[in-house]
Amino acid sequence: MPDIHRQSSWDTNSPSAPESVHGPGPEYGTGQAGAPESEREMLVSGADAEAGMQDTAPPPAGEVTPAESAPAPWGSILTDPKPQALSEIGLLGGGTPEYWMSGIPGNVNVRDLSIPGTHQSASYRGTNYFDRVRCQSQNLRWQLENGVRYMDIRLRQFGGSRGYFDVYHRYWLEQRFGNVLQICRTFLNSHRSEAILMRVSGDGSWSDDYFSTFRHYLDTYWGSYGMRDDFYISSSFPTLGQARGKIVLMSGWPYLGYGLPFSNESYFDIQDNDESTPVFKRQQINGQLVRARGNWPPKSKMYVNHTSAWSLTKTPWSFASEMNPYTLDRLNDLYTPGTGVGVVAMDWINRPSGNSNTVNDVLPKAIIRYNPITSATTGPRVLTLNGPANAPASGDVYSGHAGQSFTLVPAGIGSNLRIYYRIVNPYNGLALSMGADSVVNAQPVNPWNDQYFYRVLRTQDEEYTIKYYSLEGVYNGLALTMSNTGVVTGTRYNNYQSQNFLLPTQGDGSTGIRSKNYWVGADSSREASNAVATQETQGIPDNAPLQD
């Protein structure tokens, strides 16, 4: 992920402005991954503090307070190099791997997509013979935020016909299937332009209880609620429009009897020789890439290419350290717009160079760029401040454009001891301005009251309210408001969903200001499912759920 913003003289209308500056960042609503609710931040006014909202004047533990002399984003500092412009990496529309499906038309069949995947996706933790079973170093959330859309999940069933699944790779990987599903649900609820293809298979032997337990997960796992609505279940490949916001179920060994039959050669062309030599494995990887690329869309089946292997003398990482650089070279050498390579499922997908210290998204991007990405067709509405001065703020679909990056710069402390901030676009240097006349626009930085804002935590959820703050302590009751059509104004605070925002730390280190409720071109009805279950608290006969 890229480093933090510095003030820049870039004009977003000039040719030198980057088409996109965002890479993957922490999940919505958290300034820092895993932060407790008391440390999640929001923007609020004094009147609301009396209504139960809490101010968060000091930054949460682990965050960095920006110095006024060198403004930096409010949030975790990220240290990887800044990504290339989208035109240079072949990504348009969604802007980053986190939203790469947002720029693909909904009528494209998922069978024709080029999809980054991971082999043994959950095998990033576990203790027994770990060097022999570990195939990833980054957790499922990192994988999803960095473009992985194919997951390989192996299960063992326990507890009778309405039991539960543990996730295995020969040994227990210290999490349960419900944990995996909750991570996917959380991601999809905040990334409704995306879809996840999940291959589910058994690890070891299975009985009838395996099948009945899976039905239990679908229909009754969380009390009276199951996970069926989170899945796309059909024996036909869906279009992306049908699959958005869903987990596309694929099963094999055993086939569950519904969903896509992963073990059926009429549906899938799979290269998965995992007991091999480096020379032979390279030949297999290249051969499958060439076959998939040569079968132009619409493809007759889905191609799946596993780059993973092991032997008695080589661990999965030993193979990956050789196969990943080779695969990246072949993906680049074979690239032709309009072709496709299908699913490429990799071990250690964050390490393209074979260096054990690497953590980046180069391999997913090399696969994603094969897709017919055109422009952002779906995604969250986000505050956009492109300039020039006096240009109105808007709520455009997220595209990773520089106008969607903000730095919250502490500007002073009010009489009530709250910190107030300027909200500045670090690329064009313009500040968010909200006047008493409800007009919200871009203005040069100035000491006027209409550029002062402050934030507070709403403990009941992860939504943020951005409210106008008067330096003199006079509150006019205005709050930043974004309609479902993207119109941005200042209106009286009423806690409507149009005033609820998420403030994620984006991949370039900036802060995004994104509507929690309004999306473009994606089903927003899934929002209600958030309240169904946020923890895996039922259906497990022993200890509390493990978290990713």
From TrEMBL:
GO biological process: lipid metabolic process
Domain of life: Bacteria
Matches recorded under CDD domains: beta-trefoil_Ricin-like
Domain Phosphatidylinositol-specific phospholipase C X: 113-252
A Pfam family recorded for this sequence: PI-PLC-X
SUPFAM superfamilies given in the database record: PLC-like phosphodiesterases (SSF51695), Ricin B-like lectins (SSF50370)
Catalyzed reactions: a 1,2-diacyl-sn-glycero-3-phospho-(1D-myo-inositol) = 1D-myo-inositol 1,2-cyclic phosphate + a 1,2-diacyl-sn-glycerol
The protein's name: 1-phosphatidylinositol phosphodiesterase
Organism of provenance: Streptomyces kasugaensis
